[in-house]
Amino acid sequence: MKGSKETMKVINKQNILNTFIDKDTITKLDVVNNTKLSAATVSSLIADLVGEGLIKEKEIGESKGGRKPMLYSLNDDLVYVFTLRVTPKGAIVGIVNLKCEAVFSKTIIMSVHSNKSFREMLLQAVSDIRTYKSDLIDKISTVAISVPGIVEFSTCKLIYSSTLYIENLDVNKLVHEIFDTAVEVYTFKDTDALILGEHYFSKSNIQNMAYILCENGVGLSLISRGELFRQDGCSLELGHQTIDYHGLKCKCSMNGCIGTLLSESPALRRYTELYEEKYGRTVDTTSLDYDDIINLHKNGDVIANRVIYEQLEILSIAAINVVNLFNPDIIVIGGPLARLGKELEKVVSENVRQKALKPFVSKLSIYTSKLELSSSLQGMASYVLKVQFFKTIRI
Questions:
Q1: Which of 21, 355, 392, 365 is nearest to 209 (CA)?
Q2: pLDDT above 90 as % of the chain
Q3: Helix axes 264-279, 290-298, angle to 10 degrees
Q4: How far apart, in Å, are the Cα atoms of 261 and each of 218, 264, 373?
Q5: Cβ count within 10 A of residue 305
Q6: Model confidence pTM above 0.70
Q7: In 21, 97, 210, 264, which residue has its Cα 20 to 30 A from 4's Cα atom?
Q8: What is the DSSP string of 82-110?
Q9: Backbone phi, then psi, for 23, in 5-degree steps?
Q10: What pLDDT shows up at residue 1?
């Protein structure tokens, strides 16, 4: 019976702690109502949690007819998560507290194109933390990093990234060398971090969601039955699905992959081709990026209009494949193309509804992400904190 009582105490404390997720403050009565535990049990276990430093007494609340209640909140200063979103053009570094609030974020502009430059990026990110938030560096207990590519989640290794030109990078080992302390390390592929941010900020019980990223390549992540799909070596490489066997050669050695037609490089290449075709002379696009093509489109540039129309058609094909394979309730489109908002949603939704399997489209919603890319930092942190602190316990 002693073991059983101790087990129940651990379970009850965890369930009380879980009631603080996404709450600024909470009263003992709120906890009683949420957990269905007795007032005496809640009072005793909250005292334990305060003593352990996980929660704290914040202030006296307003009375609703009786004695003024004590308001409790998470001890947001207890632990911090170091988060880093890496792309070929740089990174966003941040620190997120126990309440999943970003207390620091900074953009680093630096080309990442090898194992060596990845290390330099991480060194720069840690240096920025030491410079701007030196008081928090020793409170960082976990490091969460997102990268484009194939990730072995269980060992925190970046197996392969065609956009970063990296193979077999031991992220776990590298982090421990740079931090020189026993932090816990999590790795995510780029779209995993973005879909987690979307899921976290939606504050809704979305069970089945797909996230398509059109940026330096084409990525896909899934939330299935309310959980992020994560499997070693399986990265849902949407950009490497062949749609034109006789098309351009891809970095993966196949021809006509989606990524050879959709994303920044194909859009710039297509703009160059159409410009030369129309005006009979070359155009220098080396200083342009995806956002520039979108801006030209919004300003009525005829060639950019054609490029964007073709990009949306190819994106529609990608979305149709995702619908037919996974039957999500929601598809979120992220990256620069998301700036097209309603225009994108209308074109892609119409194409998907006309061409995807009919049983899968009746309740399907497709929309562009309205969040900043930095939301991925809190998305990763929310995943980590749920694993470490807000564990779901089922009896």
A1: 365
A2: 63
A3: 50
A4: 10, 9, 23
A5: 16
A6: yes
A7: 21
A8: EEEEEETTEEEEEEEETTS-EEEEEEEE-
A9: -110, 135
A10: 41
